[in-house]
Structures are given as C-alpha cells and as structure tokens.
Amino acid sequence: MEKIPILLMFLGHIWVDTSQGILPVVLPKLKETLDLNYFQVGFVVTVLNLTSSVIQPIFGYISDKIRTGWFVPVGILWTACMMGLLGWAPGYRTVLLLVGFAGLGTAAFHPRAMMVVNLMSGSRKGLGAAIFSTGGNLGFALGPMVGSLLVLGFGLHATIGLLGPGVLMALTIFLCPGDFLRREAPEKWKGKSAEDRSHSVLWRSLILTCLVVTLRSWAYLSSITYLPLFMQEQGHPLTTGSLVLTVFLAGGAAAGLYGGHLSDRVGRRRVIIVSLLLYPIFMSLMILSSGPVLWFLAAASGAALLASFSVTIVLAQEILPRNLGLASGLILGLGFGMGGLGAAVSGWIADMIGLYKTVWILALVPALGSVVGAFIRMPRTNPLASVLPSIPQGERMK
Predict the structure, then answer these.
(1) Model pTM score
(2) What is the tally of helices (H) and strands (E) in the chain?
(3) Class in CATH terms, 198-378
C-alpha cells in the first residue's frame, strides 16, 4: 500500500464532498434572496444529484478508455470553483448552471480517484477503499459546518472561500512526485474464449452488486431523511432525533472503515451478507427501545448498514478488473443515485400508511440486499493474476 497517494485521494475526497455539502446551508439563503419556491429549491438538489451521481459511470467509462489522471485535481478545483461562485449567482438559471457544472466535477473526480486508490492499495484494497470512503463521509459532515461558517458568518458571497482550499489541494496532488495519476488498469488479457465464457457471469454479478448498493442506499438515505421525524413522532424532541441520527452515522463511518479492512481478511461477500443481515435485528430493536440502550442500538444499526460501504466498491472493481473506472462509477454514482430515489418512495409510503410502519419496512429492506449478495459470483481465477506477478514492477506501469 502506497500511503501518500491514498492520503491525497482521501483529502481530495474530503474537499470535493465538503464543497457540494454546503448546498443545504446555501439554499435557504438563495431562496430568500432570489424569491424561490419549494419546487425550485428541490429542483436544484435534483440537478446536483443527476450530474454528480447518475452520470458517474460515463466518466468512469472514459477513464477506462483514455488517460484521465487530470480528472482528479481538475475535479477538485472545478467543484470548489462552481460551488464557490454559487453565492454570487444573479438568478435562478445561473444557480442551476453552477450546480450542474459542480456535479460534473464531482462525477469526474470520484471514479478516477477510486481507480488510483485501487491501484495504490496492493493487496489491501478493502482498507484503501474504506479510507477513501471515510473521506467522503467526513466531507459531507463538514459541508454544513463550512457552509454555516461562510454563509451565516460572512454572507452569501463568502462561498468563494471554498476556492482557496480547492486550489491548494489540486496543486498539491498535481505537483506531488510520483506516477500515481498516470497509472492505468491492467491491459486486457489475451484469451478471448475464456473472456466470452465468463462475460455473462461478470456482468450478472456486477448488476447484483449494484442492486445491493441501491437497496442499502435506499435505507441509508431514508434514515437520514426520516429518522429525526420518526423520533419526534415517538415523543422525543427534534434535537434528540438529530443526535440519534448523528450517532447512527458515526457508527456507520467507523464500521465502514473497519469493514473494508475486514473484507481483506474474510472476503467481500461475507462482510456484505452478514452486515446487512444484522441491520434488521439492530434496527428493529432500536424502534422498540428507549433510554440509554437506544443510543447503543442506533450506533449498531448504522454500523451494520454501512460496514459494506467500501466493500461493494472493491467487489465491483474485482469483478471488472480491466474497467476500474466504470465499476467505481456504477457503485459510487448510479447505485447511490438510484438509492436516492428510494427516499422519495419512502415518503410516498409514509403518506399512505404512516411513518411508523414505513420505518419497519425500511428496517427490512437491507435484508433483501443480503439475499441478493449471496448470489454474487466472482471468477474462479483471474487471468491477470497469473500474468502480472511475472512482470517487473516498472514494466507493469508503462
């Protein structure tokens, strides 16, 4: 494992997601300044989700075909610049353009940066992916804090403050010695007949992995949206609900880091299956609990749900070892973005049958992901593995 490149990807991930994470703080001010309605506010979020998540596989595919190491520093700088200019937008159309362009920077950064992490992690790919994913979790946690510091402290125009750290981070990565931005996935191995035999299995396994991510993201994003409201409905103050959500997410962040490391030892599928099976147990107990045990069960529920967060990324990359960018884009972008639609479905269900019953349904959704995960199959042998060890390290990277 090469620590410096992974550290730089970790820090870059923090700032990319911090930059887009200021949006929840900026939107209320823009609504007031530009006299927007709630639909317009919601559409801004939709545009960011479409450009930052759903089209990530396209950038991943491009990264597999041509050298795009520059996507990493430029993606960081571009996202910080577009979000930095958001507070200066003179009208609603400009807001949509800036948010849409910011999403493109995010979509370009994630697959290529995850490819770098994969190639730099050696045999500890699960740990490398976990470190990278933790950077994103920290970034989303820091986004509202940074946004509050800038916008609430100095006004809307202070969003330009995102640009300074963005420039510094981009230059640091661009000027850092080493060839980590130029390294590519191994070339396609020779042996067409073997590839043809495994092709359907590979793509079926990748689709199943994306389905696992979609189901997990549905529960995850719905929890973020509705858990404080559920706690309030159960008679707790809204502040308590917010703190429960914080504990839930903190448990998930810690388990996500350890889950990647554990998957290097016991296997990817095993971590996915077991963790998603544990979630309905912990979440069900949490729904029925009160008092001090509630906090422990909130942390345990978050840990069970997100322990496989980085594992699914590495699993997809191992299924498609010659298409690391596409695999990363599908998991980080499309899978997560489609899961986001589940939050809207959860709201519709809650309107129909009530929030309490909906939360019970959401507690069971990840169990379906566990069942799906059991059908994921990896190739018995990786032809690249038999070829690459015989190639000198210097030759592999040419």
Answers:
(1) 0.75
(2) 19, 0
(3) mainly alpha
